[in-house]
Amino acid sequence: MLRKILAEIVPGQIRVVADTEIALEAAFGQGPGVIVIAGTGSIAYGRDENGKTARAGGWGFAISDEGSAHWTGRLAVAAILRATDMTGGAAEDVLRQDFVAALCRPWGVSSVADLARAANSIPPPDFAALFPAVAASKDVLALELQSSAGKELARLAAIVTRRLFVPYSVTNVPVAMVGGVFRHSIRAKSDFYNELRNLDPRAEINPQIVEPFYGALEIARRAAT
Fold it and tell me: Which of 154, 155, 84 minimizes the C-alpha distance to 119?
């Protein structure tokens, strides 16, 4: 369907590919490696030296997408509500108040009770919109959430590295990071690195965030030659 729609407005050859393929191309060209995409959603995807591919995660917001902006935003609301339960609604410190206010702002609400109502609304709200508030906060809950996101993403990556690159068959596995979670959260990025190196010491992680746009250009260039 998408190909048909594009054909009506764009002249020439059209190839529709998944964002994982574009990101993999941007990171490794046609070579082997594993990418972890962590934006609104999340997924780990890789290819070995023989062209075999594997994935982990990315099964949707309701049941998966661990470590993503949506996942983190949803857990942020849950963490604030749990903290409120534990204090009986008593006033928190200034840092916690600032964090709550920052979470409320994207949804246009002004209290923890309103935040809970918005979170439970139908259709569901945009939990990913809360991620910038989590990434910018120094509140202990926000830091723990960023750390958890990085570790969850590392676990997804390790599943793919182990499936595609059997232990002792290779000594180094190229890994690249893609998406706003890595770009905006130093804590998530560093904990991803440390956790993945612990789970699979063969991982060679590119410290630069990969831009999938370049992969799309390369695929188009190759198709035109």
Answer: 84
Q: Which helix (H) or strand (E) holds 211?
A: none
Which one-letter DSSP state was computed for residue 49? T
The angle formed by the CA atoms of residues 164, 53 and 166, to the nearest 5 degrees, is: 5
* Distance between CA atoms of residues 49 and 67, nearest Å: 28
CA 101 to chain centre: 24
Helix (H, G, I), strand (E, B) or coil at 202: coil
Vertex 44, ends 41 and 48: CA angle to 5°?
A: 155
Spatial separation of the C-alpha atoms in residues 86 and 1, rounded to whole Å: 51
Domain boundaries of the chain, sorted by first residue:
70-144
What is the b/e burial string over 98-129, where b = at least 16 CB atoms within 10 angstroms of the residue's CB?
Answer: bbbebbbebbebeebeebbebbeeeeebebbb
* Burial tier of 221 (Cβ tally within 10 Å: 0-12, 13-18, 19+): exposed
Per-residue pLDDT of the chain (225 residues), as tens digits, is 544 443 445 455 545 557 899 999 999 999 999 999 999 999 999 999 999 999 999 999 999 999 999 999 999 999 999 998 887 766 567 678 999 999 999 999 999 999 999 999 999 999 999 999 999 999 999 999 999 999 999 999 999 999 999 887 789 999 999 999 999 999 999 999 999 999 999 999 999 999 976 555 565 565 556
* Measured distance CA(224)–CA(221) in Å, rounded: 5
What does the alpha-carbon distance between residue 191 and residue 195 come to, in Å, rounded to a whole number?
6
End-to-end CA distance of the chain: give it in Å, rounded. 26
